[in-house]
Amino acid sequence: MSQFFPEVKKIRYEGPDSKNPLAFKYYNPREKVGGKTLEEHLRFSVVFWHTFKGGGVDPFGTSPVYDRPWDRATDPMQRAEDTLRAAFEFITKLGAPFYAWHDRDIAPEADTLRETNKRLDQIVALAGKLQKDTGVKLLWGTSNCFSNARFTHGAGTNPDAHVFAYAAAQIKKAMECTLELKGENYVFWGGREGYSSLLNTDLKHEQEQMARLLQLAVEHKKAIGFKGTLLIEPKPKEPTKHQYDYDAATVLGFLRQHGLFDEFMLNLEANHATLAGHTFEHDLTVASAAGRLGSIDANRGDYLLGWDTDQFPTDLYSTTYAMMVILKQGGIGKGGVNFDAKVRRGSIDTADLFHAHIGGMDAFARGLKIAHRIQQDGVLDGFIKERYSSYRSGIGKKIMSGKTSFAELERYILKNGEPARHSGREEMLENLINTYI
Ligand code: XLS
Ligand code: CA
Ligand code: CA
């Protein structure tokens, strides 16, 4: 078997004192934290698109700068097979248990849907074999309904029903391929499901179309017996000016409005949360509070650039805060920590792909361990519990149990007067977090 990363051996855990850049310092897959191994907690996943198909392009550099050994064959299907083999070699050497793909990353599109699907079948058969040989599993599959010119004005929200039908046909096949490869989830990210001008857009109609597409996906999931979770990934903008799945709160409202709430969970990306003007932990907390946090895309943005830079996570505060939300809800379930991340344009060596993933996995392993200690010590939980204690007895208990009225609350204030004021102790709590980092 040809090797695409001959210079890199299996990445091992060597501990925090190791100076080896190609070793984990904190991610020891077998180490237990709170009864589960790190591997079980974090369920790391490598994405097919950025990692193996990415060329290092950016808005002002649209020609690729990476020269990947798996991307050299002239025949597109040979290239697809080489890329798949390279992916499994990389993921196995890295020791990530999962990967994720778009249909069009793993198999190139042909002239007709029939031909394209034949190509997909060929590649899915090889992926099935490689999954079996290596033990690497599919975290999720998804459909690229945003790159092809036919989707310029949207897929499910396209004003032309012919395009809607095309998207549906494509998603149908991608769901079937995900089932075939025992994928644990299926993701919907609406890259062009939004608008660029309200002057030509019937927003209400487009949202109803989107709900129809999702309803059809639910029906097809049941028809084919796919037991995985359907995930929606919010993003506020880019490529469109406004995307309908703006953020976690918007998607939750949309799902409730269209009777889809029980059928979907959320896949939340750090970079998309910040593009929406939130912190990552804000969106995670909103989804988790609704019982809908299903998986995460761990890639972050850049405070100075302000677009979707998809960088690998290295900030320990962010990974700690994310893991605090995940631990609080009892784990990420069948989801995972997916690196929908790309190395920078200047990081042209294949070794950079390893450095990037090792750093991201170590950053999340540390975040997990720190969050676990904070949770074990109960310092924040205790503070928050005390802060809301007035709702557990007296007038507070009556408010929360629906046993009071405006008239009674008025009488209460006329009798008891001004409330005492209490400090929120923000600075003290920030200092406390620093003692754990
Ligand atoms: C793009 C999205 C995309 C989804 C999958 O910004 O993050 O990669 O995760 O289509
Ligand atoms: Ca992104
Ligand atoms: Ca993503």
Describe this structure in words.
The protein is α/β, with parallel strands linked by helices and 437 residues long. The model has no long low-confidence stretch (mean pLDDT 97). Helix content is 46%, strand content 11%. Strand 3 and strand 4 form a beta hairpin. The protein has two domains: 12-377, Divalent-metal-dependent TIM barrel enzymes (TIM Barrel); 381-436, no CATH class. It is globular. The protein has 16 helices and 14 strands. Strands 5-6-7-8-10-12-13-14 form an eight-stranded parallel beta barrel, surrounded by four helices. It has a two-stranded parallel ribbon with strand order 1-2. The structure holds D-xylose and calcium ion (2 copies). Residues 102, 142, 187, 189, 233, 235, 269, 297, 308, 340 line the site of D-xylose.
Radius of gyration: 24 Å
How far apart lie the N and C ends?
44 Å
Tally of distinct domains: 2
Shape: globular
Q: Structural class of the helices, strands and pairings?
A: alpha/beta
Average pLDDT rating: 97
- Distinct ligands: D-xylose, calcium ion
Number of extended strands = 14
Low-confidence stretches: none
| Helix content percent band | 40-55%
**Count of DSSP-assigned helices:** 16
Q: CATH topology of the largest domain, what is it called?
A: TIM Barrel
Q: State the fourth-level CATH superfamily of the largest domain.
A: Divalent-metal-dependent TIM barrel enzymes
Q: What is the CATH top level name of the largest domain?
A: Alpha Beta
Strand content: 5-15%
CATH architecture of the largest domain: Alpha-Beta Barrel
Biggest sheet strand line-up: 5-6-7-8-10-12-13-14
Spell out the helices and strands N to C.
Answer: EEEEHEHHEHHEHEEHEEHEHHEHEHHHHH
User: What does the main sheet amount to?
Assistant: 8 strands, parallel, barrel
